[in-house]
Specification:
This protein has 295 residues and is α/β, with parallel strands linked by helices. Helix content is 37%, strand content 19%. The two termini are 38 Å apart.
Length: 295
């Protein structure tokens, strides 16, 4: 179909749902044989506006879009919220239908991790700090499942949100290192009107916590502005942590300026950098990041 968009007709909007890798691959192979391009949007479900923005970005680039929905047990630590992570498969499928998504891949855990599964993908260095330091093993779980999803879907493009910027960099690196033939496409963070980054975990916030939550973005922006203006990085980081605790956050995992490409601590304004934070309000762990200067 040589680049021409093969738009679906109104009668053809039903999301095709696949639970096995074999069925998904057969569908993607059929699309490819017809000359269509394919994008994948990996998710853990409980879809919201930020996921829809990723689907729309995928639709703008490719002829067909697959959304994967799998709450990946391997990326949750023992004391983390795997059991209470929000799930709503039928609601998700309705949203995919409304967004005119072509296919959903909804594997069970035994399809992703059959008995005897023994392989793990580990991206070194990039995963040492930030969420890697406060959630040991998290990125091994992410890297392993993302590698599998990319190989299973065999898409041209794969969409990843900039809210999870460290995850985005880890995925870019594993795709490069393992020669996985896919383009990684970053999608800008989608925010509520008060600045709070949209996340599935926001449903865990009580009304009081929800009122405090936008402070995370506010403090990140303030810190980024101060560092871009020449303030001491160490001082700004310490002030940001204190400001979050004062505002009502229960715990701050990190509030740090890092180089965008390597995620190593920022030392000066020469290389693109970002301000990163993760902090708890009750059991909800919120993360966010913003560019410093031109980022
Ligand atoms: O960002 C997420 O929702 C997850 O980490 C991902 C990429 C779907 C892997 O489980």
């Amino acid at each position: 179909m040589s680049g021409e968009k093969a738009r679906k007709s109104a009668a053809d909007t039903q999301v095709q749902i696949f639970e096995t890798v074999a069925d998904l691959r057969a569908c993607v192979a059929k699309w490819r044989a017809a000359g269509l391009t394919v994008a994948v949007v990996p998710t853990m479900g409980f879809l919201h506006r930020a996921h829809i923005a990723m689907i729309e970005a995928a639709q703008a680039r490719c002829d067909r879009v697959v959304v994967t929905i799998f709450v990946n047990p391997k990326q949750f630590g023992e004391n983390e919220d795997f059991d209470t992570y929000p799930r709503d498969l039928s609601g998700d499928l309705a949203k995919l239908e409304e967004a005119r998504t072509d296919a959903a891949f909804t594997p069970l855990a035994r399809e992703m991790y059959p008995p005897g599964f023994a392989t793990s993908v580990l991206v070194a260095d990039l995963t040492d700090g930030l969420c890697g330091a406060s959630r040991p093993g998290h990125f091994d779980g992410v890297s392993t499942v993302v590698t599998k999803l990319l190989l299973q879907c065999q898409a041209d493009d794969a969409m990843f949100g900039e809210k999870d910027f460290q995850q985005l960099q880890v995925v870019r690196r594993l795709v490069r290192d393992l020669d996985i033939p896919v383009r990684i496409v970053p999608v800008p963070t989608v925010r509520e009107s008060d600045g709070l980054a949209i996340s599935s975990r926001n449903v865990k916030l009580s009304p009081k916590q929800r009122a405090v939550a936008p402070t995370l973005y506010g403090e990140l922006c303030r810190a980024a502005e101060r560092i871009a203006g020449g303030a001491s990085i160490g001082e700004v980081e310490a002030e940001g942590r204190a400001a979050l605790l004062n505002a009502g956050f229960d715990k701050v995992d990190y509030f740090e300026a890092r180089e965008a490409a390597t995620l190593t601590p920022m030392v000066g304004l020469d290389a693109p950098a970002r301000m990163f934070a993760a902090a708890f309000l009750g059991e909800a762990r919120l993360i966010d990041n913003v560019p410093i200067g031109d980022g």
